[in-house]
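User: Hey, quick favor. My workstation is busy. Could you predict this chain's structure for me?
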Amino acid sequence: MDLSGLSWFLLGSMMWFCFWVPTHCNNVPNGPKSCSELRQLYTTKGFSPSGVPPKEISGEHLRICPQGYTCCTSEIEENLANKSRSEFEGMVKEAGRSVQLTLVSQHKVFDAFFQEVLNKSEKSLQENFPAMYGELYSQNVKLFKDIYGELRRYHRGSNINLEEALNEFWARLLERLFKQLNPQHQITDEYLDCMLKHAEQHHPFGEVPRELKLRATRAFIAVRSFVQGLSLGGDVIRKVSQVPLSPECTRAIMKLVYCPHCRGLSSVKPCSNYCHNVMKGCLANQADLDAEWKNLVESMLQVADRFEAPASVEMVIGTVHIKISEAITILEENKDHFTSKVFQGCGNLKVTAKGSGNDDKKKRGKQHNEEKFASPSGLQLEKLVSDVKVKLRDIKDYWVALPNALCNEKIAATPSNEDKCWNGMTKSRYLPEVMGDGLANQINNPEVEVDITKPDSLIRQQILQLKIMTNRLKNAYNGNDVDFQDASCRVTTIT
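Assistant: No problem, here it is.
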């Protein structure tokens, strides 16, 4: 073999070796490359460029990046690994922050809206009842104020049995009004107890208490659970977004993001499938939230449908004062009939010196409720519900869509460049298949070592919280308050 033939043979052998072992063969004909690009990157990341070698050096010292020619010393590799971890955790938090802000803002909007509807109802009562009922109102101001206070506390999450609170209100109201409508009689507490028992049969307030209890409890349960669902969703996002990376994930992120810079491939983006495998491995525990997160969103969408029903929650909450007015009017109109029934069952009362001369004063200004009060239109609520439904559907797949969001075109190469991307070793196609979502699917992840037998405890706690909230929402959709389904103590029901 002549010298020219030998030269071609040696060059061909070298190229063949470089094809299979690319980490040892970068720029063999030209020697080590300049590290100016890494020096510039390293400086922009806040580090001193003094430690960056002028040209590539042998990479046997590297613990994460491929050990070929490199511009990274051990210190640079460690610094960039720490940097990649903080940057990735920041990206996850930022992605979560946008979803969290969406849920928090919706929580504020709905909470403020229903508070305002209830406030308007109470204000209407305070402005109109004095002229409509005179002393029947003025002597019972605290009672009316208390029931609105109970409704507010329930809405804010207090441990209140709403049915019992309403039953108690009607019972106390009937006691007060019975005394005021019969001022000529001396009425003892024992007699009032007897009167309340007969009230169950004779419906002094008509069907108003039963109807209000049915509609109000459904409305307030739906509103409270929905607002709580928005709050919990934002809280889950916040807590899970702060889960720190594992050491294995830190290594994988470093290799994905900064190792190509160490190799002199600063302009080469990671392969898309390579990026997805790293993200799916690093976010495996987070992806396990997907099933319960979707259940939560679906349950909230169902409850939101309740807001748009013919007897919408806005109409029910915003007309509490109207229902109270209707009940008082019914009692006034049927006072004589109800009183005679009570006398028959409980006995006649002693007549006192008081007369009934102030009866007209008590009733002055009474008008038909429909003429006196304006009901909510429902148009604002319709817009709010429409908006929140769109936002909830947008975040329904958040946890399993997160890897794709983080492997966007700014980070990873496009499919058209799949043969010219960083595959973790060199500039070439990435061959392994993309893993599925969740912890169990990472058993064979080629990029991140994941122990599928050790799920993250904080994330498991959040999965449990999602299950509890979803159960509450499902019960709310059916009109049940799970906190009080087994309540044993009942107050006399006035219907």
